[in-house]
Amino acid sequence: MSALDPFIAGLPKAELHVHHVGSASPRIVAQLAARHPDSPVPTDPEALADFFTFRDFAHFIEVYLSVVDLVRDAEDVRLLTYEIARDMARQNIRYAELTVTPFSSVRRGIPDVAFVEAIEDARKAAETELGVVLRWCFDIPGEAGLDAAEETARIACDLRPDGLVSFGLGGPEIGVPRPQFKPYFDRAIAAGLHSVPHAGETTGPETVWDALTALRAERIGHGTSAPQDPRLLAHLAEHRIPLEVCPTSNLATRAVTDIERHPIREMAAAGVLVTVNSDDPPMFGTDLNNEYAVAARLLELDARGVADLAKNAVEASFMDTAGKARLAAEIDAYTAEHTAAHAG
Ligand SMILES: [Zn+2]
């Protein structure tokens, strides 16, 4: 618990790197499991807390897949999406670009049109009822190969839901070179979507270069290894290409072995537009507020510094100009009020 925690909790925030199924909190998983009593996932809170206590990365994958298995029909998708927004509202997250993997659901038998309708219904309800603006990044699960890429590009470009703003690439990086996905990113970009692949999380800076050159990345998911290449950091800073940093996730996946030596310091010192995000928050035992607290400690920020970090996310987002101005003003007003209260 730090003195900044209450400030962070009340701070209006934007989240740019957070996954759909990976955001299913124990509360949401219990609701989904209750809809599917044949699932091995427990429904009572205590057993569920146990189930969510991660032993290692293999266990994380096991839990992740059992949650994936609970999302079987369009109503599950709607419930999951809306309830994620409810968890975001509690943290004062006003805007989120949620990474959604339609391929996983379509492969499991949910028709693409029904899937897209379900997330869009939840998006509209979340905005009017909870005050959370959701936008989508449809991502290719890299481990599923080029068929998944083709299917994801098709769903993104043909169905093109109103909330869709970007096109991504997730999954393992080792053995899954980024350039092979160029044709699918080309299509998505031609359809007006922004390019936001994961890169440089578990591989070196050359993967980030690949994402920039082959996939025309406008923002980089993670980019943890970027500081290994000063020329890359300078390029990211000069071209205002933001990094989506997820400190606790990096530690959980061992992309970073010691949180105290997280490269966020080098990124910020090089003038890169750094944003702080939660990735798969309940699965990594975190939330966005905690990620801000971790970043504030690592970067030795005061309240104004934390507010600037929140404004980085606004700037790096794909909101329209008016939306950005509104949220930035909200952050400024909150910060002014907080600092005045603490000065007096
Ligand atoms: Zn991610």
From TrEMBL:
InterPro entries registered for this protein in UniProt: A_deaminase_dom, Ado/ade_deaminase, Metal_Hydrolase
Molecular function as annotated in GO: deaminase activity; hydrolase activity, acting on carbon-nitrogen (but not peptide) bonds, in cyclic amidines; metal ion binding
Keyword Transmembrane: no
Enzyme Commission number: 3.5.4.4
Chain ranges of the Adenosine deaminase domain: 12-333
Alphabetical list of Pfam families matching this protein: A_deaminase
Cofactor field: Zn(2+)
UniProt KW keywords: Hydrolase, Metal-binding, Zinc
NCBIfam families cross-referenced by the UniProt entry: aden_deam, PRK09358.3-1
Entry's family note: Belongs to the metallo-dependent hydrolases superfamily. Adenosine and AMP deaminases family.
Protein's name in the database: Adenosine deaminase
